[in-house]
Amino acid sequence: MKCLNCDQEMMNNLVQVKANQISYDICEACGSLWLDAGELDKMAFQVEGSIEFCSKDSAENAPGPAKKCQRCEDVALEKVSFIGTDDIVLDHCKNCGGFWLDGGELDLVNKELQSIMPVKGKGFSEFVNNAHLPYWHKRVRRKSSETDFTMNVPPVKGAELKSETTHACPGCKTNLNAYTVFGMEIEGCPKCRGIFLDKDELRKLKDKAQKGSWQVLRWLDDETEAIGNTSTMPSKRTCPKCDDTQMVSACFGESGIMIDWCPGCNGTWLDRDEFADIVKFLTDKLSKLTAADARKKVYEEIREMWNGPEDKLSEILDAKAAISALMNITVFEHPMLFGLMTTISKGMPS
Fold first, then answer.
1. What is the pLDDT of residues 148-183, one digit of tens each?
2. pLDDT tens-digit profile of 233-245?
3. What is the C-alpha to C-alpha distance for residues 44 and 82, in angstroms, rounded to an integer?
4. pTM over 0.70
5. Are the beta carbons of 240 and 170 closer than 8 angstroms?
6. Burial class (CB in 10 A: 0-12, 13-18, 19+), 339
7. How far apart are CA 189 and CA 61, in angstroms?
């Protein structure tokens, strides 16, 4: 592992006491740290709760170039605010959960923790800042290259590898893998991280993307239903499921995202990050809907409960999601109503 700041090989330190241990990588030239998931909680001063869990909010307009994750191939670290503060910005990998700290940032983290909450203990940071103190039970120093490992990077966040298939990636010809995500099975490329979705799977995957949020996208089907009817152009890629069938390229609605579609099996190929781009496009579209627009959509979804293209349960869930969106949009458009509902909710028994 090379330091992301000065390109020096880092040193891995395994520190063990009777009750706990930590393994961290440090650049002895500039003091920068790489901490795998769970190690920042151990390294920093000890407080109630997880500071890693509270340090995942993106830091918008944070200065400095994006760094690459030390564990995940070709994955950029994201700038995050340390437990919501604007003064401390860390680099975090959303795939493996690791954190990169520049030299001196651990001291800033500890000072911030001391200023905002009771500190129960000083954690393993004592072994970094006071390495000469003989408090450790065991300490092993090795070059990082001797302990490095890589993490699997799924083509869709949260997907779990199931098996390899015999289908060739339309982009790089690597054999596709089968993954499970959101309770459904898809195929993705372990090399270029594109995904192939069988007929109707793009709609199903999109339906579950924002589960747990009021911004459920399951009723926004205009773009997915129109893929086969939009203007297309020949693609150089062949369908992995249909022998020698040439795919066509089409734009996903007005998003500017070009996807590949098979006229034979109606499967869809998305290049790396295009599914995330589609979700963002639909989420932005939903956020711009007015109450009048949402009300119109609710009427359409209610009618489709009887004669829609999906099964009855799916149409009912679509209508439910549309009604939920209408309620939230209406509240956002009327601040007084939002204040009234907030007051009522605070007065209700828990």
1. 988 888 888 888 999 999 999 998 999 999 999 888
2. 888 899 999 878 8
3. 12
4. no
5. yes
6. exposed
7. 32
